Automatic annotation (TrEMBL):
A molecular-function term among this protein's GO annotations: methyltransferase activity
Protein name as annotated: Methyltransferase
Catalysed reactions, as listed in the record: a 2'-deoxyadenosine in DNA + S-adenosyl-L-methionine = an N(6)-methyl-2'-deoxyadenosine in DNA + S-adenosyl-L-homocysteine + H(+)
Keywords: Methyltransferase, Transferase
Record-linked InterPro entries: DNA_methylase_N4/N6 (IPR002941), RM_Methyltransferase (IPR001091), SAM-dependent_MTases_sf (IPR029063)
Length: 219
């Protein structure tokens, strides 16, 4: 571990490799994460791939995490949600979450999926891809992650071992949850520290958090 930041009671960020840090952590109510998809060297064309931030992806997005690591992460929590689910080898699941990108372009995926181990129907979220607002090339839209956390309303402690710019942490603290995040790249770790500190300092009192999706009585 290279650095640890305790931003508030129950909100801790680690700079380092999650493979080294995770064995020293306890259990969590839920893991909500967005691991590397292994697409880095496939992004060779178009304006998106020409930007500096996307060249950085070649450093950390060469391959998805091995299933054995994902299984260890799943075992640390009662519930697990992995964005990028279509890129990983994971057990069969009843409940997939779909982000349908309403402004999709032909050279990029029209949708992303999240694998979950939840026992409830699969659901879809329609929303555009946002701007690269905080300097991370694959930053997830905050409303998408707030929507995701709505599926686990009782999960108080949230783990994200591939934190990037900290979107899961921002959503978690805005919704009053505890958060533990790990990021290997110092540049993204610093962005996450800043974003989550800002979210803690300025809770968005006037924005109502998304309501948990209703559980249907039949499939
Ligand atoms: C897909 S990005 C996450 C983006 C994030 N959801 C956001 O909104 O900013 C995956 C992140 O995992 C980080 N990463 C890759 N391998 C890691 C490892 N072994 N331990 C910790 N972080 C790692 C990468 O540096 C990258 O920032």
């Amino acid at each position: 571990m290279q650095r640890v930041e305790h931003l508030a009671e129950g909100v801790t960020l680690y700079l380092g490799d999650c493979r080294e840090i995770l064995p020293g952590l306890g259990r969590f109510d839920a893991t909500v994460t967005d691991p590397p998809y292994g697409l880095g060297n496939k992004m060779q064309g178009g304006t998106w791939a020409a930007k500096d931030g996307f060249k950085e992806m070649l450093q950390w997005d060469r391959a998805p995490p091995p299933s054995v690591l994902l299984e260890e992460i799943i075992a640390m929590s009662n519930a697990a949600i992995f964005w990028g689910g279509q890129y990983f080898v994971l057990p069969p699941s009843r409940c997939w979450l779909i982000w349908n990108k309403t402004n999709a372009v032909p050279t990029m995926a029209d949708f992303e999926t999240a694998w979950t181990n939840l026992d409830r129907p699969s659901k879809r979220y329609d929303a555009p891809v946002g701007r690269v607002e905080f300097g991370h090339p694959t930053q997830k839209p905050l409303p998408l992650i707030e929507w995701t956390l709505g599926f686990i309303p009782l999960a108080r402690s949230i783990l994200d071992p591939f934190m990037g710019s900290g979107t899961t942490g921002v959503a978690a603290v805005k919704l009053g949850r505890l958060f533990t995040g790990i990021e290997i790249q110092p540049k993204y770790f610093d962005i996450a520290c800043r974003r989550i500190s800002d979210a803690l300092a300025r809770p968005d009192l006037f924005v109502e958090p998304p309501k948990p999706p209703k559980q249907e009585s039949f499939l």
